[in-house]
Amino acid sequence: METQKTIKGVNLLFLALVLIEIVFQIVVGILAAFGIDIFMGKVTLQLIFSQLVFALPAIIYFVFTHRDLKKGFAFLRYKKIRFSNILLCILIYICLSPVLNFFNALSMLYSTNVISAVMFDVTDEVPFLVGLLVIAVIPAFLEEFTYRGVFYNTYRLGAGFGAALLSGLLFGLVHGNLNQFTYAFVLGVIFALIVEATDSLWSTMIVHALVNAVSVVTIYGLPAALEWMQNLYDTAKAENDVNTMNLLESIMGTNDFSIDAVMGTGASALSTADVLGLVMHYAVPAAVGGVLVFILLRFIAKRCGRWEIMCAMFAGKKTQTSPAREILSNPSDGEFTSAPAYTSVPLEPAPVSRVRLITWELVAAGVVQILMMIATEVILRHGDELAAFLQ
Predict the structure, then answer these.
(1) Cβ of 188: how many Cβ atoms within 10 Å?
(2) Are 319 and 343 in contact (CB under 8 A)?
(3) Which helix (H) or strand (E) holds 70?
(4) Angle, nearest 10°, between helix axes 360-390 and 161-173?
(5) Helix axis angle, 115-125 relative to 43-65, nearest 10°?
């Protein structure tokens, strides 16, 4: 019963996060109607406020439910991670990239890409290092603390792979739009598996920061790259260099190298045939990348002594803290040796008191968030028509 109360508590936390975000947006809208912009026209401030709105309630919840912070941080799995495992996690990100590209392309069949424009606005406001901090580092720390630390580890008390699925679902829902929901859901599930394989929250913080950092490098570097390509194309055109012109057009799919042409994205900017072409283009690399991600997770879990735990997790078994053995590397001879450690070992779920991950609080929060995402998509696609109708 204690586990059920704990799970009900985090579900109530998620409902609170959703309601707080709605109230926050309403207050911002009311203030804007009176000519008060609390963000001072800065997208960067808006991103920071959005992160804090979601993270602060989770931090408060954590502090009040874990009065012993040392045990609390152990529950969150703030544990040291070996450098070799960090490198393996980076390899996971590389293999994961085509998987994310596939699901991002798939989402374009029913959603509009809203994040690209926001991220390019950040480049106009702050220098690269500040953008890296706001878009990559802060979200990685706060979101992993909340969704893998608080939510996933709590759900893991009463479930196996279902805990990873549910924490991934919440991670997708909280992004608030159908485009990000699709790949964030997949990313959230894989992040949970990385935590389980390494037994350390630092691993997903590193991978999460890397995912976001690559996006930051892209948005800051893309304008300069496009300008260089435009100059190259114009020079080739002036010199009647048809081969170079055709090469650039085949690479970019256009002879307009402006940001709006290249990143004027979303389902509305591409035909269904174009989107299906992208999906098919990414299908094979995504399948290969997915297999490699699994192989790397298995390798990490084995060298950390957690492969049996992950197998039990897929079998739907919950865990408790108990003496076990963990695989440690021996730097003197490069071999792997066993050393005593306290870690999680799989146990069969209690047959009498079945733990329910999904409670009414979670259902209510999920329904509200889904309706909000659908409404956002409708406004993005048909905003002008709705405005004309209301007038």
Answers:
(1) 28
(2) no
(3) helix 69-76
(4) 30
(5) 110
CA gap 344, 362 in Å, rounded: 27
CA distance from start to end of the chain: 55
Residue 13: what residue type? L
Residues 6+ apart with CB under 8 A from 384: none
- Compute mean pLDDT per 10 residues along the chain, 391 residues long, and list them: 88 94 88 86 84 89 87 90 92 93 87 73 84 90 95 92 94 89 93 95 94 88 80 83 79 66 51 77 92 95 92 70 39 36 38 73 94 86 68 63
User: Is the torsion defined by CA of 369, 362, 192, 189 positive or negative?
Assistant: negative
Burial class (CB in 10 A: 0-12, 13-18, 19+), 88: buried
Residue 2's SS3 state is helix
For 144, other C-beta atoms within 10 Å of its C-beta total 25
Give CA–CA dist 201/78, Å, rounded. Answer: 5
Task: Report residue 133 CA to chain centroid gap.
Answer: 16
